[in-house]
Queue: 4 jobs
Job 1
Amino acid sequence: MIKAIAVDDEPLALEVIRSHAARVPFLQVDAYFTNAFEAIDYMAKHTADLLFLDIKMPDISGLELAEGLQHKPLIIFTTAYAEHAVTSYELNAIDYLLKPFSYPRFLKACHKAHEQLLLRQGGKLPVADSIFIKSGYEQIKIAFADLLYLEGGGNYMSFIMTDGRSILSRLTMADALTLLPAEIFARVHRSYIVNKTKIDRVERHQLHIAGQMVPIGSAFDSGAILK
């Protein structure tokens, strides 16, 4: 579990982080601060693995705060100003989130932090076995073992499950590819992503999953899908 804190002078920005963090199973945000100096005092007394840090704040910037920390956690900078990107990486930030950022982009940054912490500890990187997606007003856990494939249309993806359910979520194809581990899932068409462990048979222009046929796009190599 990653223990984190978040610092941003805008309460609404912290609420976005709080909402996204609640959907990340390996992340625990212990404290949120709109005042940078209160955050500094907190970090002097408590340890954290990860710091979500806004750059442009009154009195002291996130860059100055990061430079002044004696014991530096992993840092993910958040800001509405793209010109700060180069400076943030000079401070060895593991990622840089440009506001407004989506949940998939936030999750990708959290995965980077998770990988860095595991590597520091000499551990192996586990492959996730589930994700949470938003469907309507609900947050639904999708176990990869129960997911056959995804079908995209516009800004929505349908998650086709082994029990026959089709769960609709507002995600683009790029968002879905960010959320899903490449070890398990493969894009086979401009509109389809499949669970490689569920494939029964692969043909030149289509594949079979649980009695259903999924097309293979002309731009995709059918021979490489199972690799």
Job 2
Amino acid sequence: MGRVVGVVFVAVLTAALVRRASCRSPPSPPVTGKKNTVLFLTDCAHGLSKVHVATTLALLQKYPSVDIHYASFPMLKGELQRVSDAANSKSAEARPIQWHELRVPSFIAAAMRTWGDATGLIAPPGVAGSEKLLRDFELVASPWTADELWDLYCQMKELIERIDPAVVVLDSMLRPAMDVSRSLNRTRVVLSPNALTDVLAGMQPWGAPFWKYPALGSGFPFPLPWRLVLANVYLQLRLIYGVVFSPALAAKRRFLSDKGVRDPMPLVDVKFPEAPWISMAFPEAGLPLDFIPSHVMPVGPIVLDVATADKQDEELASWLKRAPTVLVNLGSAVEYDERMAREMAGALATVLESTNTQVLWKLQKACEFSDGALEPVEEHIKSGRLRIESWLDVDPVSLLQTGDIILSVHHGGANCYHEAILSTGVPQVILPLWVDLYNFAQIAEYLGVGIWPGKDTAPMWYAEVLSDGFVRALTGESSVAMKKRARELEAVARRYGGQRAAAEKIASMAASGREC
């Protein structure tokens, strides 16, 4: 009985929070700074910042009158220089990006103080992983200490007041940037790589997050079977309760409020209609939604592509031409331990022995381990049919758009998913390891553009299950169907405009700034 009362209490609390958000007083007109001046405030993690960097390149190429300032952490400086050089090589009118370094630990660096390394993120889906999900969600909401949050806030406040941009472009995961731009009531726009359901499920009618949409990190299929609805309700309510009543988050909010920050770290950032929300997700590439707010602007895949693959790495581009290629790229965060590498090697050995393909495998090690883990593929490495790289110096979308990649194996990151969508008829095999990654695995299967092998054992991999998934995506009727659906979705994606549409919106907002 007590549990039922608790559930009802949380449900009522959730409704009250939504009502409070919808009943707040109309905002004052935002403060707009110098005309054609844009300030980006983002984290440096590739998965979070790639949409911002890609949009920066589009701005440099198409809107040379826009003065771009970019504030982030040291790790991103080299990537922005690469983008700036690429734009300048094509147009002498392109202005250099003005770099501003943030002087506290980055989002990932702060989170890794708890996780240790990327393997600390790994968690099973569903109820089994709910306890870790709750801990991780609290950490992801704010990995910084209260003093670090305030330090970041002050640094970015000083930048905004000194640069006086017409528009501030935000990364929703850099919470102090969201807070300071809102507190100063600046003209702002959010650029997001996330699935629309990740952002908007809570705004759907009739309590849809509880019975219609799989809970974050659940790994449940869509449409949600009735037999899983109670488990889904439990996961949603547990997460809501944990976040609303988190002592750590509450203490940080009080600390920032006492410093004068207005409404710090709100539970739902997308609720503010005065801040356009540009999303690279688009309705046709996600789960169906009944309601998309007018200030949310789906623009399709925002991809970073500084040049064709042969211009970025001529030798690698030439190697791709040797045979149809499977790309195994589990993003920038996933690192392999010895067991993971051994299971993947075993699966790739089966693929290479049963098909006429070759494999490009990006293998980042979590720790040093012996070459014995790669024993199943030794002969294929020697023959050149398997190429292993610790990092890819070519933009992944550039590789996919050569036409030589026939299968994209990835971890379920938003960038990898949308890059594959934008490539002609490339099926996806998704191997998620934690929270949000399970969502894109669900979406790919629902839309018929990919498969998630080993969902029953996730996050554990086993060579036999992986190889079966790879072969199904490469051969037979299932492969034909996925390629057909992928081609259809690519045609829709290209109509949205991607980074060019995002740049156009930002440039338009910047052009409305104050004449100096």
Job 3
Amino acid sequence: MITRTFSITDFHKGDEARIEEILYDVWGVRNVEVNSNLGLATVSFDEKAASWQDFTQAVADSGFEVNG
């Protein structure tokens, strides 16, 4: 299992649940933590089932700007 953190620009407390749902929909995810105060999302996932790009792309495809 791998745990990685990336930043998401311009999202608010009300967006946290939506971003968590987006990330949990990616196959292989084990845990998600989203913090709007810091602008960060942390994802733990099975690297055999998903790639890091799968998570960042899912968030970007939902209209959020991903950094890192």
Job 4
Amino acid sequence: MPEGLHPSTHPPLPPTTEDDRVLWLRLLRSRRVGIATFFRLLSEHGSPAAALDALPEIARAAGVERYNTFCEEAARSELSRGADAGATLICYGSSEYPKALYDLADPPPLLWARGDISLLNKPSIGMVGARNASSLGGRTARMLASELSEQGHVIVSGLARGIDTSAHIASLEHGTIAVLAGGVDVIYPSENAHLARDISLKGLLISEQPMGLAPQARHFPRRNRLISGLSIGLIVVEAAAKSGSLITARNALDQGREVLAVPGHPFDARASGCNMLIRDGATLVRSAADVLETLAPLAPDAPVLQPELSLNIPPPPPERRGLAETAALHQQILSRLGPSPLPEDQLIRDLAQPAATIGPVLVELELDGKISRAAGGMLTKEL
């Protein structure tokens, strides 16, 4: 998300009533409204109600004649399902929101959580690795997770088979966070249902996805960025050269987190990813002491600045653009975008136009399905 457009620049007031939470859910769940668009609409229109009222007109300006926002009944149904599951809806800007996520390029506006939400603001270390972990890999993960949790660190992982499972089990008594790719009431893999129940009682299950949503392949990279985002450092224990754990490691680096890796035998394919990380500069981990020594300078108990809440005064309505001017802007933007991601701030510089002019046009094109926005404000043209 380009500098100046991050939600911490003009943070929205968090919802305080059920009706407010319904409005946030309706806006975030509306078709083609992603995280960046959600915060942009709140900033431009001052409130979720005003943003919802404006969405159909924005969509029509983008050429979408029939655009319906997420309905109130469905939003209230999600809230009810969350309450039935014993889950808490945590909103950006609230006292419960994890402070570590404020500096992400795309902080989730809403999080569903089941369990001890106080764990979200304790020093945390992420641990990921192979699903088909070796016996040695599992033992290493359990040893590290147990010793680090005993030292007061919350272990964060993804509830997957293998290393994730070992990490959660070993740190359960001291608090562990499982970040899910689907809804917090949909446990995947199903074989970890009992572990998930234990975590909900002694630790925390968390997800940015809607209640009841079964995880799909595209949800796992989104989940991975939260595992690293919640952590001051990420440990990779057994990972092949093309492992999803390496995606989490890249997320950690992009987020300014420390990356650590457990080395393995050079001829073991399950260790090739870890060995590559170490070759490229990750900290080599032989024991929990290595981890503690590396992360100590990061001062995990130092407060992370939480954005001050604005008065949320709606901004004045932007000047309406003429049809010809809008069409010309659409064409200029689309001509500069392709299948390769381009940072939004770079596009704005290329166009030599104010961000306040380009931003609303990008929303129109996103709602029209002509462009897509990925993490970090990266834009691509839909082909």
